[in-house]
Recover the amino acids of this structure.
């Protein structure tokens, strides 16, 4: 008899935690962890805090070291976008047309960052911080000049603007 297959669609914190819990609780079947991004799962909050401030390296936000997945027989399929599901046939279709058969399917795909809906939100200096790549780009952009300052409009969104005018002491 073949061992059951669990497919986890979403390689973020929830997906990686699900794979971890399955192994820690003795699940011996096949685990496939699918993620749209090109790297192994990471935790998002450090990207907008410690990493941007230079207090932690890029690797500090990863859920597990990259080798953990192979060491724990978790098949990590990066750059794999989950598409439609045929629940009756126990099949998940991924971008490109491939089909993955499963015994159990976990949908752990997270959410999208909310876009600002205020005047100026479409300005070229307003960025959404969602992915590791967004954080890398924003960190580099902020390092360009000492005059940059960051104002947080809401969790996950930031604006790089010129500093406020210097106080000249006159009114």
């Amino acid at each position: 008899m073949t061992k059951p297959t669990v497919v986890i669609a979403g390689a973020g914190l929830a997906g990686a935690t699900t794979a971890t819990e399955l192994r820690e609780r003795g699940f011996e079947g096949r685990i496939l962890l699918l993620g749209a991004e090109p790297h192994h799962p990471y935790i998002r909050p450090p990207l907008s805090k410690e990493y941007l401030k230079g207090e932690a390296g890029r690797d500090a936000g990863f859920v597990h070291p990259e080798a953990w997945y192979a060491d724990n027989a978790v098949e990590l399929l990066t750059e794999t976008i989950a598409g439609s599901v045929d629940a009756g046939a126990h099949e998940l279709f991924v971008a490109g047309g491939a089909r993955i058969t499963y015994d159990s399917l976990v949908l752990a795909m997270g959410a999208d960052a909310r876009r600002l809906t205020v005047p100026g939100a479409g300005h070229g200096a307003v960025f959404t911080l969602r992915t590791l790549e967004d954080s890398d780009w924003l960190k580099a952009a902020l390092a360009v000049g000492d005059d940059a300052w960051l104002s947080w409009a809401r969790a996950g969104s930031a604006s790089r603007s010129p500093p406020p005018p210097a106080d000249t002491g006159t009114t």
